[in-house]
Amino acid sequence: MSQGCFESTILSPKPFMGNNGEIFKLSDGSLWEVKYENEYLYEYYPKIIVCPQKSIISIKGKILDVQLIKKSTNSKKNNSETIENDVIESKIDGEFEGWDGDTIFKLINGQVWQQTDFQITLSLKLMPKVFIYKIDNIYKMQVEGIEKSIQVIRLK
């Protein structure tokens, strides 16, 4: 294994697809985003090799470009929210039906966010996990089980 690389497991999303823009969480708690890839791997809890200095992961012999969003943390977290380095981990409060261009999302931590880019996605889920993260002063939200992330702003 190359210097600075380590083995890990992708905990979410389930399944991990390996497509551009997909946010994934490793067993050490770090969050990453797949960049410029479309692999359709459909893997549950895959074991991977992560090389942070090269911004790549290796999964089943494939190399994917990735970007670190949040470093791992050993701090205790509660079930509703974690905020570190502009990353929020929570759940949608109630039923999730997708988004339609200006959808408003209430999270179980009390925060309210609104979609700011025009995308339409239909999906029915009950209280799915969400990751909201900041890149270049733009917040994006990734809903577990949905491949694409959307731009959002915080209303409350």
Secondary structure topology:
Elements: E1 6-12, E2 23-26, E3 31-34, E4 47-51, E5 56-59, E6 62-70, E7 82-84, E8 87-91, E9 95-99, E10 104-106, E11 112-115, E12 121-126, E13 129-135, E14 138-143, E15 150-154
Antiparallel strand pairs: 1-2, 1-4, 2-3, 3-6, 4-5, 5-6, 7-8, 8-13, 9-12, 10-11, 11-15, 13-14, 14-15
Tell me, what's the shape?
A: globular
Taking all residues together, what is the mean pLDDT?
Answer: 86
The strand line-up of the biggest sheet is 7-8-13-14-15-11-10
C-alpha end-to-end distance = 45 Å
- Compute the CA-based radius of gyration: 15 Å
Q: Main β-sheet, in a few words? A: 7 strands, antiparallel
Level of helix content? Answer: under 10%
Low-confidence stretches: 75-84
Question: What fraction strand?
Answer: over 45%
Order of helical and strand elements: EEEEEEEEEEEEEEE
In DSSP terms (H or I, runs of 4 or more residues), the helix count works out at 0
Look at the helices and sheets and give the structural class: mainly beta
Question: Number of DSSP strands?
Answer: 15
Oligomer: single chain
Write a brief structural summary.
Helices cover 0% and strands 49% of the residues.
Write up this protein.
The chain is mostly beta strands. Helix content is 0%, strand content 49%. The protein is built from no helices and 15 strands. The chain has strands at 6-12, 23-26, 31-34, 47-51, 56-59, 62-70, 82-84, 87-91, 95-99, 104-106, 112-115, 121-126, 129-135, 138-143, 150-154. A seven-stranded antiparallel sheet has the order 7-8-13-14-15-11-10, with no helix packed on it. The protein has a six-stranded antiparallel barrel with strand order 1-2-3-6-5-4.
